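Structure (tokenized):
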């Protein structure tokens, strides 16, 4: 096949991808559409690889596995965190996949190249697209006139004239009302701005993919590679040893003096509550120790990268000092892990706490790989390559773990195991987790948990999936709640979803809720009877807020205020002036902690 004909394959594939961007994503939540798009992109790329007689490297083949996996997980998980990072990792790996057509060996990448090369490839795609299209036009007989210097000058002149004419038209229409009326008549043309926008999206996306394909498959070898950065080592052995030795000595003194504080048990911490609260001990200590670990890693990495080691003695000294410092960091990280475990044992899992556990474990493995690199004097490229794949594997693990489902499962299990005395179960937090958590949450209806917990959970789930069509249900007069039947609402949600936005987790959540609709509706009615709002005076409301008994407040434009207490009771009152409750609640937060504030 002629090379000219092959280029039309490239343009056609890019145009199809441009149209898919509009069809799959415009005005639709991301779902299975992302997987369809990525799969199409991969198929087109493999076809063009063969057409242009390019060769895929083993690393590129390996990239296809996590790319497909992450794109699949986008419609298998509904957590916004997982969705964001699955998209991010997919796009990052795709960009690296195309980058390797010119850069060849990932083992030669330093830390900056992992980010600069893919970013440079993406930014240069539009530039490459313009050159590629211009080249195609000039190669065709029909394009000679369009590609001539006079034609190009005319186009540039039109582009320059448009903003100038727009300014003068605006000034003249402002100066003369008759001219303005004629102009208004002229512009009375029905143009659908949405259609214009969608055409623009398709055009820009198509041009982008023309550039991506052209840069990967039709690029000149002379254009492909960026210059290598040879960074010189400027830090002497004596300076490096002093820095590492002093930091290591500081850590040793810190560990010895603070041994019990670092690894203090729950009983030890509760014994010093006159100095620090249990919650502050866990939170404050964890953050500080993680910061120390990260800074220490960056310090050793910088000294290893820029430090001079001219003989065997200097090399061995660096290995010893680095090894000791890494060991001390492991001790500090073990303390951070211990603190976090105490916090979770006392207050349960949240997404940030679970993520902190994952971060600690992942960071520990990175330290082990780095220590291996230092002791055996391996190249930086091999270390970064290992960390790169370790990061991919860990994020795959997070997807498999399914964080929101794990949090719901573990918190409910801990609540049951501690005879329902464990600091209460944060029902509202669990109900606000993503659809991933629903199959675990509804299991509480099959347990012997307190009926009050089941009633609260039913109300929160109903508010989320079957919101009332009258505001008073939520805030003023809970017994006035009006909803459509849960089953009809779930069917309505399913029917409103377009296939592009299909999400397996959401679909499973809706099916699960449909299976438990009788229990949810039953306990919700009990909750509304039990927690009908009692009316109190404004003075009583102020005392409750200042006394730190309030979890959330809500006000309407009519100054009607609903107060939700920490025990779940709801009370209503009338505030003297609009926003009085907001001012009091914000003033009380310094003493009582965060109070949820909402207005109509």
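Design, position by position:
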């Amino acid at each position: 096949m002629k090379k000219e004909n092959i280029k039309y394959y490239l343009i056609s594939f890019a145009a199809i991808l441009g149209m898919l961007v509009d069809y799959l994503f415009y005005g639709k939540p991301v779902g299975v559409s992302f997987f369809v798009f990525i799969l199409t992109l991969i198929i087109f790329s493999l076809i063009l690889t063969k057409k242009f007689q390019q060769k895929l490297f083993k690393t590129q083949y390996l990239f296809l596995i996590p790319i497909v996996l992450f794109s699949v997980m986008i419609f298998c998980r509904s957590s916004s965190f997982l969705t964001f990072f699955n998209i991010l990792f997919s796009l990052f790996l795709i960009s690296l996949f195309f980058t390797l057509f010119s850069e060849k060996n990932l083992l030669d990448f330093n830390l900056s190249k992992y980010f600069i090369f893919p970013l440079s490839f993406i930014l240069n795609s539009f530039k490459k697209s313009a050159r590629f299209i211009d080249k195609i036009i000039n190669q065709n007989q029909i394009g000679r006139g369009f590609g001539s210097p006079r034609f190009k000058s005319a186009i540039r002149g039109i582009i320059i004239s448009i903003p100038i004419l727009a300014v003068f038209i605006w000034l003249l229409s402002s100066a003369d009302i008759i001219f303005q009326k004629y102009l208004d008549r002229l512009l009375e043309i029905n143009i659908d701005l949405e259609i214009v926008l969608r055409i623009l999206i398709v055009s820009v996306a198509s041009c982008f993919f023309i550039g991506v394909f052209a840069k990967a498959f039709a690029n000149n070898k002379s254009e492909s590679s960026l210059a290598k950065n040879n960074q010189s080592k400027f830090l002497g052995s004596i300076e490096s040893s002093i820095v590492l030795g002093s930091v290591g000595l500081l850590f040793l003194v810190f560990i010895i003096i603070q041994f019990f504080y670092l690894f203090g048990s729950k009983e030890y911490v509760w014994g010093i509550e006159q100095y620090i609260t249990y919650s502050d001990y866990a939170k404050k200590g964890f953050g500080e120790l993680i910061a120390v670990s990260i800074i220490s890693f960056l310090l050793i990495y910088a000294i290893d990268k820029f430090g001079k080691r001219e003989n065997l003695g200097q090399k061995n000294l660096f290995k010893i000092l680095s090894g000791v410092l890494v060991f001390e960091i492991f001790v500090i990280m073990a303390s951070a892990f211990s603190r976090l475990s105490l916090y979770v044992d006392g207050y349960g899992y949240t997404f940030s706490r679970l993520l902190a556990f994952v971060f600690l474990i992942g960071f520990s493995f990175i330290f082990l790989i780095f220590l291996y690199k230092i002791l055996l004097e391996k190249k930086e490229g091999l270390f970064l390559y290992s960390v790169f794949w370790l990061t991919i594997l860990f994020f795959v693990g997070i997807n498999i773990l399914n964080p929101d489902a794990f949090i719901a499962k573990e918190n409910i299990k801990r609540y049951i195991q501690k005879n329902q005395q464990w600091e209460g179960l944060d029902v509202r937090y669990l109900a606000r987790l993503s659809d991933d958590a629903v199959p675990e949450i509804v299991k509480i209806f099959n347990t012997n948990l307190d009926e009050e917990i089941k009633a609260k959970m039913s109300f929160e789930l109903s508010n989320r999936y079957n919101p009332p069509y009258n505001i008073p249900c939520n805030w003023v007069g809970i017994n006035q709640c009006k909803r459509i039947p849960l089953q009809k609402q779930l069917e309505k949600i399913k029917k409103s979803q377009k296939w592009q936005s299909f999400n397996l987790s959401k679909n499973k959540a809706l099916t699960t809720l449909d299976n438990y609709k009788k229990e949810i509706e039953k306990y919700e009615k009990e909750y509304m009877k039990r927690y009908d709002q009692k009316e109190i005076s404004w003075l009583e409301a102020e005392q409750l807020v200042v006394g730190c008994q309030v979890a959330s407040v809500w006000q309407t434009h009519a100054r009607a205020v609903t107060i939700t207490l920490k025990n779940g009771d709801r009370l209503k009152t009338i505030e003297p002036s609009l926003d009085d409750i907001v001012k009091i609640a914000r003033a009380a937060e310094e003493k009582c902690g965060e109070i949820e504030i909402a207005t109509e």
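Reviewer-requested clarification: The CA atoms of residues 239 and 307 lie 9 Å apart. The chain has 26 helices and five strands.
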